[in-house]
Automatic annotation (TrEMBL):
InterPro entries: ESRP, Nucleotide-bd_a/b_plait_sf, RBD_domain_sf, RNaseH-like_sf, RNaseH_sf, RRM_dom. Residues 227-304, 328-408 form the RRM domain. Keywords: mRNA processing, mRNA splicing, Nucleus, Repeat, RNA-binding. One of its GO terms (biological process) is mRNA processing. GO terms for molecular function: RNA binding. Belongs to the ESRP family. It is found in: Nucleus. GO terms for cellular component: nucleus. It comes from Rhinopomastus cyanomelas (Common scimitarbill). Coiled coil: none annotated. This is Epithelial splicing regulatory protein 2.
Amino acid sequence: SLVVLFGATAGAYGAKLGSDERELILLVWQVVDLHSKKVGTLHKSLVKADNLDLSDQCREVSALTPEGLSKAEPLDRVLQQFCQLVSSDLKVLGRSSYTLCSDGQLLIRQVLHPETSKKNIMLADCFYSFYDLRKEFHACYPSSATVKDQTIKTMAEYLGLATDETEEDFGVWQVKTMVAIIFSMLSESCNYMFTEPETVKYKYETGPCFWFFILSSSKSETVDSETVIRARGLPWQSSDQDIARFFKGLNIAKGGVALCLNAQGRRNGEALVRFVNSEQRDLALERHKHHMGSRYIEVYKATGEEFLKIAGGTSNEVAQFLSRENQVIIRMRGLPFTATQEDVLGFLGPECPVTGGKEGLLFVKYPDGRPTGDAFVLFSCEEYAQNALKKHKEILGKRYIELFRSTAAEVQQVLNRYMSTPLIPTLPTPIIPVIPPPYTIATGSIRDCVRLRGLPYTAGIDDILEFMGDATGDIKPHGVHMVLNQQGRPSGDAFIQMKSAEKAFMVAQKCHKKMMKDRYVEVFQCSGEEMNFVLMGGTLNRSGLSPPPCKLPCLSPPAYAAFQTAAVIPAEAALYQPQALLPATRTAQASAAAPPTVTYYPAQAAQLYMNYTAYYPSPPVSPTTVGYLAAPPGAVAAAAAATATHTPIVPQPGALVRMQGLPYNTGMKEILSFFQGYQYAPDDYNGLIQLSEQARSVLQAPKEWVCL
């Protein structure tokens, strides 16, 4: 038997049903005996929602009112009545089992399951299996419209059935028409069989995803990008089960929730989720800005490559640790470096036994075997895991231990992070002259530039050129400038130099609020002067221009703005460009062909004011990086003469160290005191960087150490 089911919410109707998180207000159903082709009683039940504010579309389509709904039963009572009435109708028809049949997937997956999950209502087993009438109809009549374009009305029109919805109450006509469609499919001319229902997973399956093991043997395998999403804005304490509950009703692949970590190994509020197919992924995207508690969650498309970077791995030790099915994973952080397996088991105690004893423990170590203070523990059930979490911040040895829920993907991320840490820090790039651009940045008040605002953070130069379309031919050589933030990442802005003010005006008119990927981009006409202000650290908004720091007299010495003094800059400033900004067609040969000129910054007070933008060539565009200012052509000759008289000496490997995490007020004397007692090579160092006399005297006085 089938139970034909139709429902409506207080908000959107049709293809957007459930996308606005509005509550269910109507259920209509009828039992159909597929063998005898008899039907049971048609039932219509109103549902009292917590929020009785109906949308205009709901009022117009359903003709329901808040007054009428206020007298209805709440959802849990309506669902109980549904099960009881269906059982009674089945007995009358002489049947005992049934499967739901709905118009599409939305009512079951996007309305009933999410709402009952939020209200902690236990759904009956019948709601975990159903037939999608649209799919079944298309399978029976392949020449009909595609599944995506099907509606009850279009299916009825295809069969020549009556389509006047005004003859019946809202919901009643829909169910009666669906029953008539099913009988047409059961006729002798079609003799259609309902055999493969849609299923909803009862719970999320934890553990390593299948792709984790595939990666161990083959790096060529990929995950379908049409099945992956990125969820952003998650509470920091949320687990994979919390995320699975947010997507309740949709089928997530086994081990398909990968929580993302920041550079410090802590969760950053993002997760990558992999679904069983693209249809489930598309339904997940409709939950954009749905709520998890009091927070709304952003949902975007992601790629299979991104998922593999987080959830995949090649460690046999991790694969063996995660090979046990349906285990709860707890992460321990802050363990003493001398802690042993016996110490951890004793800390957890007999009330929370570890699966497999010592085999259920995984210590995280550096490549040389030193412990990091992190460990992962497996528990066979939720009860044992809850007992372990109660020991959060209890003392082991002389340290308090933090305990958190974890996932298989997090285990792999943490292991990858520490195992990829080099035993010896990477030697910084030698300080050598940097090749400056053979072009000039626009100046003046002529409005021959355009500003792009609101770019996707993943957008690169090629995306911008594609976005501009035919106007690409009107861009000046090296005329595309990406604006980066102080971390060197795309800020969502870009400036483009056009060949004329007229071309800039036409582009602004044509491309304003045009879509790039999933976002619309604002395009404004501006001048070269305004562009330079922003690229050098200033701001441009509705309030006008705010000058960059280098233009403020209270910060910048006179010699800085005039570029009077030259000094060679580190090559790494040019080499650390985000690769996403560079065109895919760029080759090493093309870079080598650039004219040999030099970029400078002033020596005086250089370390105090180095938070501006520099420009480096990248034909046919010029992405920017945060770091240094380009020098005027007159300074190039001075640098050439300086480098000709003294050949830089590159130190031997291991002769340089790089310091990170210095206090902002640290001076040269504090650094020298920090390294007191270590030998250095002052002669080699003098050839690498130009120093003032005061700095040189400080460096040469001890004759034992040097700092960069």
